[in-house]
Design a protein that fits this description.
Helix content: under 10%
Oligomer: single chain
Number of helices: 1
Low-confidence stretches: none
Strand content: over 45%
Order of helices and strands: EEEEH
Radius of gyration: 22 Å
Distance between the termini: 32 Å
Shape: elongated
């Protein structure tokens, strides 16, 4: 990722806890105009959190990274060999 890319982040202290939250989301619509193409809404998204606290002479650190992409990559997709009507179409030849 280039240094110029924006990253949304929040870092703060709450008592002895150090907290961090980073997140990103984009949305779009993919429309491929062909018998083999697809039309679908899609989103790339993630959220990452961390909490750190001193504990018994050491450090307790909790981390998690989550994404809703399995739910936001919906719509109909097609692979080579099927068309929008469900009829079989010739597949693409492999380049050698």
């Amino acid at each position: 990722m280039p240094d110029s890319s924006p990253v949304f982040a929040h870092h703060l202290m709450a008592g002895d806890w150090m907290l961090m939250l980073h997140y990103w989301a984009t949305a779009g619509y993919d429309d491929q105009w062909s018998d083999r193409g697809s039309q679908r809404f899609l989103s790339t998204n993630w959220i990452m959190g961390m909490a750190s606290h001193p504990l018994l002479g050491g450090q307790l650190t909790l981390r998690s990274m989550l994404s809703a992409e399995p739910a936001t990559m919906g719509g109909r997709t097609r692979t080579a060999g099927t068309s929008t009507s469900g009829r079989s179409t010739p597949g693409r030849r492999a380049c050698r």
